[in-house]
Design goal:
The protein has about 140 residues and is mostly helical. The chain folds into two domains: about 1-35; about 35-140, no CATH class. It is built from four helices and no strands. It has helices at about 5-30, 50-60, 65-85, 100-125.
Length: about 140
């Protein structure tokens, strides 16, 4: 049988280990590791990762997912307008002017990026999304 002092030390050690394990679980499995999927592979997005997307939001948008998402919603709306009007749009860095199926594919890729942004924003606890047009995971064009 353990003496009172030894039992107290055992309980403290158990509490410290439990706290450490919980902290590791939060860091590994918390919002930073939300299962939001993967980004579409777009040449001029330079192998963007979800972690890099978070850094962009933190650095360029001061952590405001709403502004970041609104920017990409505007981008998507512009592409949809181009497709509807038959206007050819020059793509960044490549200068290509896709129309028809390639333009539709790019719109789908932007939509995929938006869906991931909504997922990451929700996982990060960002609550300013209610005023934006598209709900997370919605398929709107």
């Amino acid at each position: 049988m353990l003496g009172p002092l030894l039992l107290e030390q055992f309980m403290r050690a158990t509490l410290m280990i439990s706290t450490f394990v919980l902290a590791i679980a939060v860091l590994v499995g918390g919002p930073a590791r939300a299962d939001c999927g993967t980004l579409p592979n777009v040449q001029w997005w330079n192998d963007l990762t979800l972690a890099a997307m978070r850094q962009v939001v933190d650095r360029r948008y001061d952590g405001d997912w709403g502004s970041y998402i609104a920017k990409w919603e505007r981008q998507k709306d512009l592409l949809v307008d181009w497709r509807s009007s038959g206007t050819a749009a020059a793509m960044p860095f490549t200068g290509e002017k896709p129309d028809g199926k390639p333009l539709t594919n790019y719109i789908d890729q932007v939509d995929g990026r938006l869906n991931l942004a909504y997922c990451l924003a929700a996982a990060d606890g960002f609550e300013g999304l209610s005023g934006l047009a598209v709900a997370a995971g919605a398929d709107e064009e």
